[in-house]
Structures are given as structure tokens and as C-alpha cells.
Amino acid sequence: MTGSFTSFAATADGNSTRIVEPVMSSLLIRDVLLRGQRTNIFCENGRISAIDGEEHPADSMLDGRGMIAHPPLINAHTHASMTLFRGNGDDLPLMEWLTKRVWPYERGISPDEVYWGARLAILEMIRAGTVFFNDMYWDFHAVAKAVEETGVRAMIAAVLLAPEGTGDFSKQVAKNEQLYEEAKRYSDRVQFAVAPHAIYTVSEEALRWSGEFSKENNLVLHTHLSETEHEVKECYEQHGCSPVEYLERLGMMSDRLVAAHTVWLSEKDIAILGEHKATCVHNPVSNMKLAVNGVYPYRKLQAAGAVTAIATDGAGSNNNLDMFEEMKIAALLQKFKGNDPTAITAKETLDMAVKNPAKRFGLDGNPLQVGGLADLILINPDMPELNPMHDLASHLVYAANGSVVDSVVCDGRVLMEHRNIEGEDEVLAKAREASASLFARVDETNQD
User: Fold this and answer.
1) What distance in Å separates the CA atoms of residue 93 and residue 95, rounded to the nearest whole number?
2) What is the pLDDT of residue 24?
3) Are the beta carbons of 383 and 47 closer than 8 angstroms?
4) What would the pLDDT profile of 223-268 be if each residue is shown by its tens digit?
5) Is 164 found in the same domain as 45?
6) Which residues lie below 8 Å from residue 126, measured CB to CB, with a gap of 6+?
7) Distance between CA 445 and CA 61 in Å, rounded?
8) Please, which pLDDT band fits residue 38 given cuts at 50, 70 and 90?
9) Is 6 helix (H, G, I), strand (E, B) or coil?
10) Beta bridge pairs of residue 10
11) Whose CA is closest to 306, among 318, 314, 298?
12) Residue 114 lies in a domain
């Protein structure tokens, strides 16, 4: 292992405080295929120090014989701890699902339950080659603890909910300002973002504050945007403009904006998003499952200058976190909607999950280079679905699923070695317990 190791100790008030202990070590990944050439990858202190045929002395070694070294995948929008809701309330309309099967239970969720839900999500993502996720959920510290302990990377935000007239605005501001300062105690694998949930759950005052705070501190502004036709119609009724125009009016539109869904967009909306180089995140499985009756306009957003990305959304509305599956469905949906098999290529789809959003999330835009982050996955080319090997990008997008990932490295630390992840059984057991406890407790309270 390299990079940093994080442990937690209890404070007098019962909360946990983070202790980061640097681990100065090295890793040699031997005999891998990188860009068609057999080589070794030598990692020191979370960075790639050498890519060559040398047998560099190292503290640990990962046998990559016959494997293909590839950049890991980026999950640009999710709610990690919603793994606890997987399979609960399926086959319902979006708002009914939220109001009856999600929000009532989330109001009673504990930090420990958020933590184990995040641990389960991270386990699932590692197994499918994802080592970075952009998260919006309750209890920042519970998710951050899970990220630190598992060795992955994440941009984390405590969702900001402050509906008009509820009086929650000042509490939300104080909470986010406090979390912003507390987040600085974590390793650089944890980043802080501001996340107003959506225009229909956050007051104008709170939205303005979110934009200003994001600008003042150069933070990502993460929100749901133009997901449904109803959202757009309601925005016109209340504000006389589209959700995209509304955010621009409030000073929230910039290259720091990460907007999830962006399905119901006018030509003017697309031009605004492109002009500001906003990151627009495609969530095809969630959008189809919840029947938003629209399709992310990939080609138009790309042509306008927006950053295009792909994500799973939460497991409550997907229902898995496999980015390989998400890429395939994203590509096929674009082709189907446009009645054009050339609407998006495999390479373009793969870039949406690897390169396009990397800079916005503080990752390497040109990964697997000397001096870059020691983040990579090893793909097993002997899996049946990857043969015969005509084109790697095509196979990863159209043929693969997460099972083709043999090993995972993040920050120079081996997180999965030949499909084995330390502590997997405990995570599964604890997550099952957390979900059962949450639903039983809230259901009993509601009956009372």
C-alpha cells in the first residue's frame, strides 16, 4: 500500500476524529500491457514514477501478467449510501418513489447506516473498476470515513435541502460552512462540494448562496437539473424561464457546475451550458427506469462546449453501480433516439467515463503517465466477452461488464487483487443489517 492510511479515534463527545498516517511505500505492477506494449508500472507515494521494463525494488508487487492496464472509471453522479434502498419501491413514478419510498426513510437514517451503505457502494464500484465517485447524500463525515478507509477517491457533498418558506436556510448555510472547514482535515482523496438538491427543493435565497459560496471557495456546485418535463414546466410557471436559465439568473452557471441528468433542454439551454463549459452528467439507466420521457442530448451538448460525462445515479434508481453497463446503455440510447448508429462512438462513450470529467474532479486528464496519479485497473483480456480482441474501446463499451476487472489500484494502493477485496464479507453483512434496521425502525415509527 502507498499514499496514506486513515484511522479514526473517538472524541469525548462520541464523534470520530480523523487521524491520517502517511505511508511512504512503493508498488511494482509487473508485466502488464499498456497501450499495446508489455511493461512494468512503478508507483511511489501515490504517483507513477516509471513505466518501463525495469524491475524496480518495491515494498509490494502486483502480478499483472497478461492483463491490460487501463484508467479507472469515473462515476460523475451518485448517492452512494442509497445501496440500502436497492430494490425498494421499484416500478413507481419518480415523485411517488421519492415521497413514499425514499424521503420518509432518509429522514430517519443514522450516520452508521449511511456509512455502511457507502461501504457497500464502494465495494461494488471497486469490483467494477470505479475508484472515483461524485456523491450527494446525507452525513458528509460518514461517507468521507468510508472513502478514507477503503482507499478510493470521492467528491462528497451533504445535500442541501431548503425549500421556500421552511426556515431551514440559515441552518443549511451554517452546516455547509462548518463541513467545508472540517473537510480540510481529510486526505486529498476526499474533496468537498456544495450540493443544492434541485430548484424545486431549494429556495432562491439558498440557491444564490450556493453559487456565491462555490465561487468564493472555487468549489464544485453539484445539483440535479432539468431531469423531468414537470420540473421545466413548473419553473416556467414560477420564474418565467427554464431551470438552466434560472440558474444562470442566480449566478450559478459556471465551469464549476456539475449538473446531473440535463435531459429536458432547449436549444438556448444547451447554448448556456456550453458557453459556461458546465459538466452535464448522463444517467441513462435511472432516467429510463424512472421514465423521464426524454434523452440526454449528447451530440448537441458536446458541440456547444459542455463537458459530457456518465454516471449511475444511486442504486435506488439504477439498481447497480456498474459503469461498464452504464456506458453500453448510454451509447445504445443515443443511437436509438437519433435513429443513427454513428450518433456516438465507443471511444467517445469511454471518454465520458474516463477523461472528459477528470479535470473538473481534480483527476488526471491524461491518465497512466509518469508523474500522474497511481490510479489504474487491470482488465483480464481472457474473459470470453472480450474475445476476439478487435478493438478494446468497443469491447469495454459494448461487451464488457464489471467482471472483466481483475485488479484495482488507487493512490498506489491495491484495493482489489485478482478479484479479492479484503473485508468484503463484513461489508455485505453490515450493510444488510443497516438496511433491515433502517426500514424496520421507520416503518414502526410510521405505524405509531
Assistant:
1) 6
2) 57
3) no
4) 999 999 999 999 999 999 999 999 999 999 999 999 999 999 999 9
5) no
6) 150, 152, 408, 415, 416, 421
7) 52
8) very high
9) strand
10) 16
11) 298
12) yes
* Residue 223 and residue 196 in contact, taking contact as beta carbons nearer than 8 Å: yes
Say whether both 172 and 114 belong to one domain.
yes
Comparing C-alpha atoms, which of 215, 359, 350 is closest to residue 279?
A: 359
Other CB atoms within a 10 A radius of the CB of residue 418 amount to 12
Segment among 83-97, 308-322, 417-431 with least mean pLDDT:
83-97
Within a domain: 371 = no
Helix (H, G, I), strand (E, B) or coil at 388: coil
For residue 177, the Cα-to-chain-centroid distance in whole angstroms is 22
Phi and psi based region of residue 20 (left: phi greater than 0; alpha: psi -120 to 50; beta: remaining): beta
Give the separation between CA 167 and CA 149, rounded to whole angstroms.
Answer: 36
Q: Please, which residues bridge with residue 378 across strands?
A: 69, 407
Do 55 and 115 lie in a common domain? no
Q: What is the per-residue burial (b if ≥16 Cβ within 10 Å, else e) of 292-305?
A: bebbbbbebbbebe
What is the reported pLDDT for 170?
87
Same domain for 167 and 183, yes or no, is yes
> What 3-state DSSP class applies to 156?
strand
Which residue type, as a one-letter code, is found at position 155? M
* Domain harbouring 27, CATH code: 2.30.40.10
Rounded Cα gap, residues 417 and 138, in angstroms: 31
Question: What cell numbers appear for 307 in the block?
Answer: 463537458
Total domain count, the chain: 2
Name the amino acid, one letter, at 154: A
Residues 148 and 113 in one domain: yes
User: Do both 153 and 265 map to the same domain?
Assistant: yes
d(CA 437, CA 448): 17
Is 7 contained in some domain?
yes
Specify whether the CB–CB gap between 60 and 288 falls below 8 A: no
Q: What is the CA radius of gyration of the chain?
A: 21
Q: How far is CA 168 from CA 93, 181, 201, 203, 227, in A?
A: 28, 20, 11, 10, 24
Query: Is the per-residue pLDDT at 146 higher than 80?
Result: yes
- Sheet arrangement for strand 257-261: 221-225, 257-261, 279-282, 307-310
- Say if 367 falls within a structural domain: no
Say yes or no to pLDDT of 22 above 70.
no
Domain containing residue 279: CATH number: 3.20.20.140
Domain match, 31 and 170 both = no
Same structural domain for residues 312 and 298? yes
Q: For residue 186, give its domain range.
A: 73-361
* Mean pLDDT for the stretch of residues 343-369: 97
